[in-house]
Amino acid sequence: MLNFDLVIFDADGTLWDYDAGERKALEAALAAFGVPYDESVLQRYRSINSELWRLLEQNVVNSDFVRVERFRKLLSELGIDMHPFDVQRVAADYLERLSAQAVPMKGAEELLRLLSGRVRMAILTNGISAVQRSRFALSGFGRYINDLIISEEVGVAKPDPAVFVHCLNRLGCTRPERALMVGDSIASDIRGGAAAGIVTCWFNPHGAPNLSDITPDYEIRRLSQLPELLGC
Ligand SMILES: [Mg+2]
After folding, report:
1. pLDDT tens for residues 120-156?
2. Ligand 1 centroid vs 76 CA: distance in angstroms?
3. Calculated CA dihedral for residues 17, 101, 115, 111, nearest 10 degrees
4. Residue 18: is its pLDDT beyond 90?
5. pLDDT tens, position by position, 186-201
6. How many angstroms separate the alpha carbon of residue 79 from the centre of ligand 1?
7. Percent of the chain scored above 90 by pLDDT?
8. Backbone angles phi, psi at 147, to 5 degrees
9. From ligand 1's centre to the CA of 82, what distance in Å?
């Protein structure tokens, strides 16, 4: 018997290389609307976006707001005057391009193939539903993963423990201590998982310092370390 009955994966930055897809989609979407792009625009976008996602995680705003507001803010900071209707078009164009990006993290496919049929697996993501469903389909991970749970569809986002409990229920897991949450975000994956009584594993590929007051049960640098932790 394995050490866990269920593995819950975060999507972006854990199974998918979100950064690579985000960069490509942003550059192409801005180019399509004649907005000059360079590395500093990407950095600015990322900081605006992560601030808005923090508000979303605190239930202050919803994802419909985030998807347009991040571009309204970015364009305004860049001093580009665009009609609100066109800002919405840029936002939609970006999402469409992002939906076509499904770059797997190093070792993700091998890991899922290895675990497939041996342990139940779910993906739990705060991402935007249409984007995540599209990338899920493109990645082919549906062959291995039992369920894809998207906070936008549930109505609560990580780190709210309610969405983790929802995930356990959907997967028929009655013992949270037999579930392992694997994710790259202390603030959403580890904090929320722990609050729901789930065992947590911080995927920390860059060896970042943990500046939070939360201590994950486990920490890994590579996805290939996971099978040993699961006992297989
Ligand atoms: Mg993540």
Report:
1. 999 999 988 998 999 999 999 999 999 999 999 999 9
2. 27
3. -40
4. no
5. 999 999 999 999 999 9
6. 31
7. 91
8. -155, 145
9. 31
> Pick from 228, 232, 222: which is nearest to 14 by CA?
222
Which domains, ranges and CATH numbers included, belong to the chain?
6-16+103-230 (3.40.50.1000), 19-99 (1.10.150.240)
CA atoms of 161 and 198, how far apart (whole Å): 10
Please give the Cα distance from 16 to 37 (Å, whole number). Answer: 24
Q: Which of 5, 8, 32 is nearest to 194 (CA)?
A: 8
Quote the ligand 1 centre to 168 CA distance (angstroms). Answer: 19
Tell me the DSSP string of 122-159: EEEE-S-HHHHHHHHHHHTGGGT-SEEEEHHHHT--TT
Task: Provide the whole-model pTM.
Answer: 0.85
CA 11, 15, 19, 20 torsion: positive or negative? negative
What's the DSSP call for residue 106? T
Residue 174 Cα, ligand 1 centroid: separation in angstroms?
A: 25
Q: What are phi and psi of 179, to 5 degrees?
A: -110, 145
